[in-house]
Amino acid sequence: MTPRFAPTAALLVLAAFSTSVPAQTVLQTDALEQGQVLDDTQLAEAPGRAGRISLVQGKVDIGGDVGAESSPAQLNWPITSRNLISTAPGARTELRIGSTAIRLDGDSSLEVTELDDDSLRLRLHYGSVSVRVLNVDVVPEFELRTAQATVRLTQPGRLRVDAERERDTSLVSVLDGEAQVDGAGASLTVRGGRAAQVRDEDVRTLQAQRDNFDDWSLTRDQALVAAQSARHIGTEMTGYEELDRYGSWSTSSDYGSLWTPQVAADWTPYRDGSWTFIAPWGWTWVDNAPWGYAPFHYGRWVQVRNRWAWAPGRLERRPVWSPALVGWVGGSNWNVGFQSHNLAAHGWYPLSPYDRYVPGYRLSSERLRRLNDWRHATRREQQQPGRYNGLTVVPREQFGGRGPVIVPRAPRPNRPEQLVSGTPGSAPPPPLVARPGWNRDRRDLLERANVGRTGVERPAFERPGLERPALDRMQFEQQARERGEQERLTRERNNGERLARERMAGQERALREQGERERMGREFENRNQMDRMRFQVERNDRERMGRERMREQAERIQRQPVMSTNAPAFARPESRPDSRPESRPQPRPEPAPMLNAPQRPAAPPQMVAPPAPRPQPSAPAFTPAQRNNDQRANTDARGVSRVER
Question: What is the reported pTM?
Answer without folding.
Answer: 0.62
